[in-house]
Amino acid sequence: MTTRAQAMLANSWNSIGITWKLLRRNRAGFIGFWAVVFFLLLAYVGPLVLPVNMTENVAQIYQPPSWHHLLGTDNEGRDILSEIVLGGGGLIGVSFLAAAISTFISITFGALAAFVGGRTDYVILGITDIILTIPQFPLLAVLAGFVRLSNGAELAALLGLLSWPTLLRAVRAEVLSLREQDFVQSARGLDLGTTHIIFREILPNMFTYIAINFIIGMTGAMYAQVALIFLGMVPLAQANWGVMLSLAWTQGAAFYSGSLSYILSPVIAIALFQLALITFNRSLEEIFNPRLRTEG
Amino acid sequence: MSQASPVSEEQVSTAISARKRRSLFSLVVGNYALQRIGRAVFIIYVVTTVTFFLDRLMPGNPIQVYVNNMVAQYGISYNRALQMAASLFAINLKEPMLTQYFHYLIGLLHGNLGMSLLSQGTSVSSMIVQYLPWTLFSVTISLFISFVLGVVLGMYMAYRRETLLDHVVSTLSSIFHSVPNYLTAIMIIVIFGVELKWFQVGQMRGDLSPGVAPGFTLTFVGNALYHAMLPIITYVLTTAGTWALTMRSSTIRTLEEDYVLVARSRGLKDRRIALAYVGRNSILPLFAQLTIAVGFVVGGSVLIEQIFVYQGIGWVLGNAINQRDYPVMQGVFLVITCSVVVANLLADLVYSKLDPRIRIKG
Fold first, then answer.
1. Test mutation, A133, A150, A169, A263, chain B, max B CBs within 10 A
2. Cβ distance A255 to B194 under 8 Å?
3. Is the complex ipTM higher than 0.95?
4. How sure is the predictor about B360, in pLDDT bands with cuts at 50, 70 and 90?
5. Where do the domains of chain A lie?
């Protein structure tokens, strides 16, 4: 077994402890990790624990931040902090689902292209190239206009169905190179079968790689999702950061000092969540790809 | 296996001529430029076809909805409504599908993209002629500025690793890379426009101030730049960092090359090594990235132009989508895709001129 193969094996499932140690040494990544945890807790545990109150109060419009309303109130007198606490779960959930869909497509067809090769590979790569060339966001927005989204699952499906090309190419390249590794070659020599080779030999070795790309997929889905909501492509039924942003923008909250908290709260929440994910992800990349560590 | 069969001279000569023939064939097919052009044309064709069938085959497709609306609301006869739909969408529903498709393609070649549903009497192509130049103007300038800025910063960072500038630019570029560009745009308005009052957001809207006539005058160019400034700043802020980081790692890799060592040992001046040896080679990977950047910036313009009310093609698309003006949506989408495909083609061709290895590998 080559040293690279050994290193890759060491990076698989049972080495989470080592990852944790390396992550703790990586300052930015460690902060990013805790920030991600913070946002997940805020979005999923927060609504159950914190005293959220979304009632409108006409007498309390655009109140400045105070002890009673830590982030002030919006144009209908609702508590902005409550809106932030309640507005993360849906967005994060849709991003997660979208990333899961696109990751599934990328892995299945990327591995298929690399393994079967020949005409299948050619066709899959051809389709990937075409979708990759079309500017993503306009395509997404135009399609959303045709399909008329009605719920989060449909939104996630649309996002996931369009965002697989980059990862597919990467998976294909990775499988192509792993296929030539000694341990895969010996598995082939032992005649262990394609399913065994893909699921037991190759995919475990790509686990961290896929996890990293999954997080990138989530940030992409978050970007596109909020953008679609902002353009008014998704029905504003459920309150979330994107809907808040869209409403605050159409109310002109960005243009008056008194209402800045209303627009800045969702802006900062989304921005920080994205920043946290990407910082955490960068450090994961550095941990699992030692070449990046030495390059800097 | 054990006994090597003698090869006749005839076999050898046919093998050689076959290889010659194949190389002639591969010269045509393998011609990098032709191959790329063919690919670009093919992608544009696929996109037009998909938009056509999207329109026709989607459940509750916009044309049928329009026809039904006309019949139900205005009591127009079905045939009359069909005729109206035909001129609006540049598709005649009465014809068989294939004929429709064929006429649609011919119409496209003549620049017929249909009419806007909302601004009555305005053709989609006239809207594109009016608004596309502003987007091309702002996007081209932004790409140029961020490319040059990225190259200069990246090289400087690679030469002065672990200095303050290196850390500051690295941190800033990962922040601007992570934060969605439309949020950066909103924050520019909030922080610099509303709080610090460095500029008047309202006055900077639109493409030109009232009373400024287009022409090759200094007032016109200055005014156009003034109005395009906020979108340009946003594009540059959000993309220059990525260029810088790519250039930085590419330069670091080049600095380790043997030819740089040889150039140094020959006693060449540092400046000459930096420009002629390191810079010229490190810049190559950036051209490959240009294709991604073009798509990203053009795609982002839909949101950025909405936020700054900069009336380019992205602004038109944003409005059309918001109001479900289907002919405009389709036409603008086609034009945006075509411009990105053409920009990619140009980047590919320039790249292959600069780096012959690409052409040979294919």
1. A133
2. yes
3. no
4. low
5. 17-292
